[in-house]
Amino acid sequence: METIVKIISTRYVTHNVKQFRLEKPAGFTFTPGQATELSINQDGWKDKKNPFTFTCLTDDPYLEFTIKIYPDSDEGVTNQLSKLAVGDELILRDAWGAIEYKGPGYFIAGGAGITPFIAILRHLNKEGKLAGNKLFFSNKTDEDIILADELKSMLGPDALFLISAQKDSIHDTRRINEVFLKAEVSDFTKHFYICGPDPMVEAINVILTGLGASADSVVFER
Ligand SMILES: Cc1cc2nc3c(=O)[nH]c(=O)nc-3n(C[C@H](O)[C@H](O)[C@H](O)COP(=O)(O)OP(=O)(O)OC[C@H]3O[C@@H](n4cnc5c(N)ncnc54)[C@H](O)[C@@H]3O)c2cc1C
After folding, report:
1. Rounded mean pLDDT of 20-47?
2. Of ligand 1's atoms, which has the minimum distance to the CA of residue 53?
3. Which of 10, 49, 68 to mutate to test the pocket of ligand 1 (most atoms within 8 A of CB)?
4. Alpha-carbon gap, residue 45 to 92, rounded angstroms
5. pTM for this one?
6. What domains appear along the chain, each with residue ranges and CATH number?
7. What phi and psi values does residue 127 have, to the nearest 5 degrees?
8. Which of 58, 63, 165, 206 could hold 22 in an S-S bridge, CB 3.0 to 4.6 Å?
9. What is the pLDDT averaged over residues 107-124?
């Protein structure tokens, strides 16, 4: 189903990631971790449907999306989204997606791949059920980390930020590879949730399988 919704607020949460809050249609539901296809309700843009993940709580009075903007892409939806203002309209569709919480484990994210985990971790935090979960969040530089303060305040030392392309980073500069996972994962029978660029998801999946994680307990978007 398609519904036209207005933008209620926007704000940059990093130098290139913008949070959009939208009107929430009555009765609209989603499961934390799910996405939808959005398009811009303007001539020439209505049929460009791009997937974005809900980052709000299910009972928030608005819908929230946290979107990395690619400003160099004139034809790109995120560049056009970045130019929209309060009151502009988007076309919202039904929620879908494979990522949902199945039990305590390890959340492994790269860049904007954190978005389904923002929704899940906020939900668990609200329910007081975060214990037993750990986050490994990889980014190129310190300033790329989306909602670093909120993630730290929810997870404390169980939020580990990994920085791959900044030598003077204030964070850990290890790569998420086999050596890292052997050092940081104490229980390979727990759940693993992976979201990020395809090569990262594939590589980590292979490593985890090799280290004894069962395919049933590894959750990622197919
Ligand atoms: C299920 C799902 C949920 C998602 N949720 C979110 C979310 O919550 N937040 C978020 O920020 N993103 C999310 N994404 C990614 C998001 O959909 C895309 O980043 C967005 O659609 C890009 O749109 P665009 O038209 O602006 O970009 P485009 O103009 O298509 O390109 C964006 C950038 O990617 C590069 N690019 C384009 N195609 C390729 C390619 N094939 N290989 C390598 N590089 C390429 C371009 O050069 C450019 O730099 C999600 C994706 C999926 C599948």
Report:
1. 97
2. 8
3. 68
4. 13
5. 0.95
6. 3-92 (2.40.30.10), 105-220 (3.40.50.80)
7. -85, -5
8. 63
9. 97
